[in-house]
Structures are given as structure tokens and as C-alpha cells.
Amino acid sequence: MERLTFDYPATAPVPKRAHVGVVGSGNLEVLIEPSPDGRARVVVSTSVDGYGAVWKAVLDRFFERHAVAAAVEINDFGATPGMVALRLEQAVEATRS
């Protein structure tokens, strides 16, 4: 089990909390809530060790497009980078609905 933390500058606060996805069967869940300090902080708990560079690449790409000020918790059970990107998009959308 590995725990990774990433911080990003942000400009757009998320209006409310949201939860998308489930942990299990190669999937992941994303919990997102408004940031307490106006920045983006992502904490990843993953069952797959040694993929910090892949996580960083996926998250860098996401936060280049969405500069959301949010506290994000990701609980991963071996999801692919594409699934991670999809769940992040879903989480941001869920905070707006």
C-alpha cells in the first residue's frame, strides 16, 4: 500500500462535496470537497506501489485543465490512468450539480 500527496495551485473553488466510484475490482473512488486554503491537495492511497510518476502525470494533466481548489482523496485498487482521469472529471462535475 502506498500513499502519495500532490499539491497544485488553484483558481476555481469547488462549491460542494462529492463522492464518485467504488474501491474494488480494479476501480477507485474519488472524494472531493472545497479546499480549506484555496489550493488543490490530492492524497492517493493505492494498492499498487511504485507508480508515483504515473499518478503525477495524470494529475498534472487534470489540474492543467481544471484549476479547482479542492481537497481530493483517491482510494485506488489498481485502476488504469484512463479510469483515474474519468473519475476525476466525474467528481468535478458532481460538485457542480
Automatic annotation (TrEMBL):
Superkingdom in the source lineage: Bacteria
Main location class: cytoplasm
UniProt key word Repressor: no
Subcellular location: Cytoplasm
Coiled-coil residues: none
Record-linked HAMAP family: Malonate_deCO2ase_dsu (MF_00710)
Protein's name according to its UniProt entry: Malonate decarboxylase acyl carrier protein
